[in-house]
């Protein structure tokens, strides 16, 4: 999003992989998944966010990662559904757009306008179309939270041979707080990301006002309370905190990941985490903590929609896979002594085989 402040051509080039990937996902969701336009748009926006978070890992690789997530079985299981009321959709988009433009003109701060626009759309969407504990809203919020966290950490903790570190931008801190509050109110399971969010803010050396810490602390306490009441105290409880002792559950989670990305995908994920921890220790640590929180959820959760609730885990795994592909591509490019990065793009192009296979599997079931 920092690219919005630069030349429009540079901005378009930076965002073009995410926009292209989201468009392809949107078309597939509409015509192959027979998904209503609002639901398809929401899911495509999630793909836009997660692809943007991987943009610094390569132009082609980020496209491959975004499409891999879009066509993996768990994400694709959110397709279909009944058609929503077109008038409500139009009103929501219209109010959101008007709010964004108005606040940008008044405040001269685009991030305030964007925040208000998102708030208007989510508020109308949630009250008129969505439902509490909306799985799709949770996925959308998580995808953009990951984008903000990744973008903030890479900006404030670059490699020593890269650009000098910068302070977090206002859209990072405000966006993280806004999405966390909205996501927690929708589904308290998002509080599982509290350790990763707090650590990312600390590692980014963000200078935040007292009210910011008060709001995020109160939201965290409320979220933990809602999580306890919703998933632990109700009968029957949907969480068994001792479930992690069952070895079959560990195997089940491992099979779930393999079913999404294959054994090669698991290997790429492990390799990506290892390289990320080597070159970007703050990002490697934050993503590993978030991944561990949702892996633990998979071990103890016994309710419905367990696979879809583990979508944040899959999002992080795709980020690791994409970084592994980019790292391997750079190694090949350096080995071939190329200065044009052509080998990096060629290796990343092979990554597109995985979403192509996943898409073919979808077509086979139609």
Q: Low-confidence parts lasting 5 or more residues at pLDDT below 50?
A: 1-5
Q: So what's the overall shape?
A: globular
The helix content, as a percent range, equals: over 70%
Number of helices: 16
Strand content: under 5%
- Largest sheet: number of strands, sense, barrel closure: none
What do the pLDDT scores average to?
A: 83
Count of extended strands:
0
Given the helix and strand composition, which structural class is it?
Answer: mainly alpha
CA radius of gyration = 20 Å
Order of helices and strands: HHHHHHHHHHHHHHHH
Distance between the termini: 37 Å
Could you name the key traits of this structure?
mainly alpha, 75% helix, single chain
